[in-house]
Amino acid sequence: MAKTALPEEEKSTSQVPNRFQISLPSGHSETVSVLPYSTVVDLQTAAQQSFGHHFLRLAAPDGRLLDPEDSLQASGLQDGDSLTAVAQQPRIAATRSAFALWCFGGNGIVTWGDPLEGGDSSTVQHQLRNVQ
Length: 132
Fold this sequence. Notes:
Elements: E1 18-23, E2 29-34, H1 40-51, E3 56-59, H2 72-75, E4 82-87, E5 90-94, E6 98-103, E7 109-113
């Protein structure tokens, strides 16, 4: 039996990407697309790849910083929104045999090295918010 194509209005809109205009304070902007069920971190990752900068924080059209763990829907973002990306400077700290990497005000920290010297932060990762 031959399959018939669904009318356009019946196709799932979940497969149509949302497009966002993301601008740096310098004025450089990029259009970034992600699927509607994506998270803010998915959008952030796409922006980082587009700008070639690995430490960006996104701000909503109303100026509030977006939580990377939120879904696009929970964050209130809509297709066509214009966002601002703020470049963050990464920081690093070290003990004799462990390292930590973070950005001021970021939502996490990456650690590696000897777990007995601070190289494993997995048990406290949920507490590492707005790291200074």
